[in-house]
Design brief:
Blueprint (H helix, E strand, L loop, with lengths): L6 H10 L1 H5 L11 E5 L2 E4 H13 L6 H23 L6 H26 L4 H13 L7 E10 L2 H12 L4 H8 L3 H4 L4 E5 L6 H9 L10 E3 L2 E12 L5 H27 L10
Helix pairs in contact: 6-11
């Protein structure tokens, strides 16, 4: 049995979950409510479940071996806990200070879990918030560009392609014949709609300066080679569809409600700051 394999994480968890170690339901008589009894003190199944759930949420596999090892760990912790009480270490000032911090932390976690449950936005309110944000989106400064390109290795080859385009050659056909970009070659050099920032800087600058329908007059050099770039069209960045941002909007609404809750409590509290924090 590999008791000490999980001893360290649980020892650390003892500070984070003091309630697990501190609860002694001495009046529990039914054996099915306990997983062990140490010196007459029961270790409750409830305590076991709290620690097990914490470990399982961190990716621990729920096996019989895990549960047996966890029981051994809790027995060891109970033995150590009783020894600490025997030595009256529960009266140690450092322990008491840490206990207050951890108790507060645990209770705040419960408070916010309860708050989130009571203030969970409905699908309708999330949709309303989305429509409100969409209607208020008046920023047209950000642009998306529909572009295509032909990538070649040498500058002379790129210049020849530009010359052929000037003479009426089809851009898509030239891309299929010459482009070294496997991702766009079979699509006639198509890159679709993207913001300029999606591309490396020389390529992005070309997109920003070209007019709709224009092709670069000079090859654009990047680390990939030489590009002949055509800006097919441009448009303001469209507002993202509801399905892409609904979860983000929901979390934002919960965070906003939580912040308002905290701000309201602070506003109504009588707060006195004492001394400097040097």
């Amino acid at each position: 049995m590999h008791v000490f394999k999980i001893m360290l994480p649980f020892a650390m968890a003892a500070l984070l979950l003091p309630a697990v170690s501190a609860v002694h339901a001495a009046d529990q008589k039914d054996a099915d409510k306990n997983i062990a009894v140490v010196n007459g003190k029961p270790i409750s199944k409830e305590r076991f479940d709290v620690v097990a759930r914490s470990q399982l949420q961190q990716g621990q596999e729920d096996t019989q071996e895990f549960r047996e090892e966890l029981r051994e760990v809790l027995i060891t912790r109970e033995v150590l806990y009783q020894e600490a009480l025997r030595q009256k270490l529960d009266r140690n000032p450092d322990y008491l200070a840490q206990l207050e911090v951890v108790k507060q932390q645990l209770l705040l976690g419960v408070l916010f879990e309860d708050f989130m449950e009571k203030h969970q936005p409905t699908p309708e309110t999330v949709r309303q918030e989305y429509e409100r944000a969409k209607a208020g989106n008046t920023d047209t400064s950000r642009k998306q560009f529909h572009s295509r390109h032909i990538l070649v290795k040498e500058e002379d080859e790129a210049l020849k392609i530009i010359e052929q385009l000037d003479q009426g050659a089809d851009f898509a056909e030239l891309a299929g014949e010459h482009s070294l970009d496997p991702g766009s070659r079979e699509e006639g050099g198509e890159l679709g709609w993207h913001e300029a920032e999606r591309f490396v800087e020389p390529f992005a600058n070309a997109l920003r300066t070209l007019k709709k329908g224009e092709t670069t007059r000079e090859p654009v050099k990047t680390s990939f080679g030489f590009h002949v770039i055509q800006k097919v069209d441009e448009r303001p960045v469209p507002f993202p569809p509801f399905e892409e941002v609904s979860e983000q909007i929901e979390q934002g609404m919960i965070s906003q409600a939580r912040d308002q809750f905290v701000d309201g409590l602070r506003k109504n509290a009588k707060i006195e700051k004492i001394g400097t924090m040097e």
